[in-house]
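User: Hi! Is it possible to get a structure for several chains at once, not just one? Here's what I have:
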Amino acid sequence: MDAGEYIKSRVEMVEKAMYPEIPEEPKEVYGMLRKFIERGGKRIRPVLALASCSACGGKEEDALPFAVGIELFHNFTLIHDDIEDSSPMRRGKPTIHMEYGIPIAINSGDALYSIVWSSIVRRATPEKLKGGGMIMTEAFRRVAEGQGIELNWYRENRFDISEREYLEMAGGKTAALIGASCELGAYCAGAERERAALKDFGEKIGLAFQIKDDVLNLTADPAKYKKKIGEDIDEGKRTLITIHLLSNASGGVRKKVAALLGKKKKSQKDIEEVIALAKEHGSIRYASEYAEELVEGAKSSLGALGSAEGRQLMGSLAEYIVQRER
Amino acid sequence: MDAGEYIKSRVEMVEKAMYPEIPEEPKEVYGMLRKFIERGGKRIRPVLALASCSACGGKEEDALPFAVGIELFHNFTLIHDDIEDSSPMRRGKPTIHMEYGIPIAINSGDALYSIVWSSIVRRATPEKLKGGGMIMTEAFRRVAEGQGIELNWYRENRFDISEREYLEMAGGKTAALIGASCELGAYCAGAERERAALKDFGEKIGLAFQIKDDVLNLTADPAKYKKKIGEDIDEGKRTLITIHLLSNASGGVRKKVAALLGKKKKSQKDIEEVIALAKEHGSIRYASEYAEELVEGAKSSLGALGSAEGRQLMGSLAEYIVQRER
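Assistant: Yes, the chains can be modeled jointly so their relative placement is included. Here is the combined structure:
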């Protein structure tokens, strides 16, 4: 089975188990949540949890309670992140806070976070709940930490971010949950020896996915890309690209880039100028190569898996997830 | 030992276990949370959990992981409720969103909710985690449901609330967590037979506490009261008092009250007029008596406890918690 087919069938399995986790009543609380999670999404986290379990010789169903919990948690973070970033749209529709206002959107996210745990606690076996819960809670903390670090950069208008700081932020905000998905799969298969390798694999492809996303934002084919080219520059987002540019440009250029990124209202010309400087300083190439190396590193972590079929499955998923054009 | 002394010593025990649950790093995420939970509070929920455990013949320390988790959860709800209600102050200091802005305040609450579970999962024994987790997740869901129902009343500008609807809202928003605290105490003592009675006890005193709070808001001695008399009327809060008034006043008066409560900017005279009408229609007396009956009902639930000492401890805590002057 190729990666695309595998993902499609597992997404169905996850959605079938996940949708009934949202209660029917009270409708004014859960109606909008049900519709929100039914908007879809790539579901890469729960699919990786099931695949990791299978790659370690376990039964995919054994990882399903945690896979569902992780996907519900991911959706909860989207609701709150969209408020925090003032994003008007999510998956082609208005964000919850645009439709219902900020107070209800905050509470909807909280209700969904509560469902994450009621789902896991009810569905996981007592034997797996403690160990699986430890993996999940560590990741959930790191996601909030990563988001908190980034929000603080915006609040303090900081651009002097080191690569180490950036990797700590993105490692929490994006990579931790994907690492936990893979680790949970191994854990549910009882594959204690393979847990660390799969966690490492997941964190690396999670980070690679994020960096590729940032590269694509500046280099994609506008005809194929869903967002506006250069939107990240417009929003002053700190990425591996801007960090490389700021630390490798000479004094005058660095000042100029920092001033452009810090401008509240940027013109199309400002955005294009930053992109041109990033190209000129090799910052986009640097980030692309960084992501490629992460994928290679992730694949070499798979060497710890005993099964050749398991290595093949995980490797093809890694390629599929990280390679995107839009 | 009297109730006041008992509470004081158990608050110390809870705080000693709770404060180290907040990590040190990253400081920009956890520093403000540490300070927030150190602002204090009555800590009635964790104290009731420990007392319920003891009243059922258990060791208080066995209930401590859940007691700490419940108090951390309560603090998380305060951070988000304060954003949702646009409250400027909490425990005599600016709310987190006033100090750091809404995006960081939302994320701080989320970080604290993540700590709730990392604390419980790490500290609870595997044997108790599933059963205790079931009690907690049910309560956490009901808190978000109650808050969601109330936010929806505000959004739709609804005042035609029935007493049944009000009790569902307050039963979730306020009573569920106090009921869960008491039930968890019994559960951790292994007192399966006494769980339902203690849950019922906790929900009743939780609701009584809320209703007394609402009565006090209209009738307290201004010299002793911490808030502004009539603030609830000013904010258009739906309470058992206003619901009784709206359903017992004649047509003309009802319309007038609904119009006054719905006004965006209320004068001091408007507020005083609603309070006078509530007195005239017996609505304040009705709510007071309702709360008293709940306390009596809560005490009779204690009949299920085998230990006379246990009944005495829980009864004196109920009196202490519900009787307040400010």
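The domain at 3-309 of chain B is CATH 1.10.600.10 (Farnesyl Diphosphate Synthase). The beta strands of chain B are 89-90, 93-94.

User: Great, thank you!
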